[in-house]
Amino acid sequence: MVDVQLSDAEKIYILHGIQDNCREDGRSCEDYRHLEIESNVVSNTTGSARVRLANTEILVGVKAEMGNPAPEKPDKGRLEFFVDCSANATPQFEGRGGEELATEISNLLSRSYDCPSCFDLSSLCVLPGQQCWILYIDVLLLECGGNLFDASSIAVKAALFNTRIPKVTVREDEGHTELEISDDPYDVQRLNVQSVPCIVTLSKIGHSHVVDASQREEACCLARLMIGVTEKGTITAMKKEGSGSLDPASVEDMMETGKKVGQDINISLTCVLKMEERQGVKRQTIGFLR
């Protein structure tokens, strides 16, 4: 969490607004800020996406490489998450200031995806016990404007939707197994990301909770709950942060809000990505990498 210093009067103003379901920027407690999504923004990746949530900017690149499956999962591929906090995002990330936050985001993403029903890792297996696709998912935090976990998960899902993995042909020749990777850009394998989760962060401020907290709202928050939610409302991971406590009734209410908001985000994100894909080369590009 990036620290923002507020006076007591500013905190009281924010808290009273949230109690009346009217935040300082006019949103209700369950509304997200304006969100921009653009996929296929980095040419030398297997898949990529850029997300801007208010002043938070995230860039994700996916690189597919052949490798060995994990010994405990010989018939499945692997996902490897790497998060980097750019020193330009905030002065607090200078030096090694962003390493702890990067590790937290990476760990929560890994836990959210470690659910058999949300992502079919067996589709990445080429030769059981020998060869599989490893997806290296690099998340770069370019600018911090609050709610980094949610924005990162949305960008990761968009990048995986954009991912195209070359098809592999397995040939047996005189007792030897040969793998032939297609170099045809249209002979590719798509990933099924329909059940991939998005993270929803619920910040407890006063006696109420909000989603998509701004940096100023995060400064008023003593406890927050982050949950991975699929399109069907399944919770794949949950993490509590902050020095404040949460009673069981509050946790239950926050989970219900998170499930409802998470479903809406997943459905809206899928619709936007499919619409962008249908536009093809005619779509308007707004990314800074073009």
Helix content: 25-40%
Shape verdict: elongated
Radius of gyration: 20 Å
Sheet of most strands: 6 strands, mixed
Q: What is the C-level CATH assignment?
A: Alpha Beta
Category by helix and strand content: alpha+beta
- Quick one: how many beta strands? 14
Q: Give me the CATH architecture, please.
A: 2-Layer Sandwich
Describe the protein's architecture and organization.
The chain is α+β, with helices and mostly antiparallel strands. It has one domain (8-282): 2-Layer Sandwich (Ribosomal Protein S5, domain 2). It has helices at 8-19, 99-113, 148-162, 215-218, 248-279; strands at 35-39, 47-53, 56-67, 78-85, 125-127, 131-143, 164-166, 168-173, 176-181, 188-190, 198-205, 208-211, 223-229, 235-241. Strands 1, 2, 3, 4, 5 and 6 form a six-stranded mixed β-sheet that branches. Strands 12-11-13-14 form a four-stranded antiparallel β-sheet, with helices on both faces. Strand 1 (35-39) and strand 2 form a beta hairpin.
